[in-house]
Amino acid sequence: MALPLNDSMLWRRAETEARQVSPDESEWFLRVLCAGFGLDMNTARRFFYDDPYFEVNQRWGLWLNERGGQTLVSILTAIPLTMWIGARPVPLYGIAGVATLPEYRRRGFAAELLRQTLQSLYREGAPLAVLQAFNHEFYRKLGWETVGAIAHARLTPKQLPRYDGEPLRRAGAADHEAVMNLHAQYGARRTGSLVRDKRRWEYLLWNLPNLWVYERSGQIEGYLFYDFLDSGWTLRVREMLWRSERARRAILGWLAANEESVQQVEFQLPVEAVASLGLLGWSAPPTEPSQPFYTVQVLPNFMARPVHASALLRALLEGAPAPEGFQPFNLRVRDSVLKANGEMASVSAEGGLLKVGKASSDLPVLSLAPTSFAMLAFGTMSASELHARRILNAPETLIETLELLFPERAPCLAPMDFF
Q: Which listed residue, of 85, 124, 269, 373, carries a Cα 20 to 30 Å from 313's Cα?
């Protein structure tokens, strides 16, 4: 049966225009943002314009030609960021605020806007795009893949150990430099964490005012960033960092003392970091053998998508020492959404150092989907595990080389780095 010509699902790409939003169109962008996420315009306006990234963000919109004019129906923001992958800082774009006017949803406008944005980022030479997805399957169809996991644990304050000692105090502006230095020394360079330059720290301190520190003999030994969920009844730890056991105990003791203010304390951490909190003991003797001390959920974390495969290979490998047993190869991404990303590149060695260049006809070819390349690049699983699970279809002779170039890393985007 033929669809009626006025069916709302019928539209052609020729009827839309995707481009960056100009400064004088910011209010229209904000209107779609608020309508898409159910935000109050007056409240959102200050956060929108005062955002430290406002000047460098790419704000994209999709306009629909209708009724003799154009309607801005779908938007997103591309934020320039840098993320640690192994020991290397990789420039990328964080995709945030993907929204469509409610009356125009389920017509493919957001997907079309994402395709057009990817093409522009490719021309710019951006290696990667990452995002925190509301629907992983939607983005997977566009070439993103879930590359990180995060552990969630919720405890009541009474379940946390109580420690005697010096209390925390609210941080002031004079403490910021010490907090930044503590993070640089003890908290940086985990795969999936963002590089915190001056702008990033300005954003965090502007966006997260709840910062408390533990000070001992005039030296800050630990800090705690937090915010609230569930109408204030859940305190979410955005980041806690310590360089001494007394600082760890002081922070946990401060959280335990909040039983009159909050019902639960939520920790979101890399899976392997859960044990470092020191919560495996108990504050009171257990009553039943079937009652757990606490429950940890391991949840999908963030998604990544190679935008420019050659640029990503260079960012990860160029100039690194070639490992023993390295075998040169060509890499080609089968990218049906971003066809330009399918250009083949070679990974070889010159003078003992890795080099990324043009494809060579005499080298074996690693052909993979963008979703598989994302998992390989981030070290979500080892190359041999990806191969065994049929996620990565690689020549057997290349598996050892891939294991050396892309080791397993357990990536995680911590709550403090959400964008």
A: 269
As a whole number of angstroms, the distance between CA 278 and CA 266 comes to: 15
DSSP-derived pairing of the beta strands 145-146 and 128-131 = unpaired
* CB of 75 closer than 8 Å to CB of 60: yes
Q: Which domains does the chain have, with CATH numbers?
A: 13-126 (3.40.630.30), 151-300 (3.40.630.30), 308-405 (3.30.1050.10)
> Under DSSP, is residue 28 helix (H, G, I), strand (E, B) or coil?
helix
End-to-end CA gap in the chain: 46
Q: How many whole angstroms separate alpha carbon 264 and alpha carbon 154?
A: 6
pTM for this predicted structure: 0.92
Work out the mean pLDDT of the chain and round it to a whole number: 93
Assess contact for 243 and 218: CB atoms under 8 A.
Answer: no
Between CA 230 and CA 222 the distance in angstroms is 27
**CA 364: distance to chain centroid?**
33
CA 243 – CA 79 distance, rounded (Å): 32
- 121: part of which helix (H) or strand (E)? helix 109-124
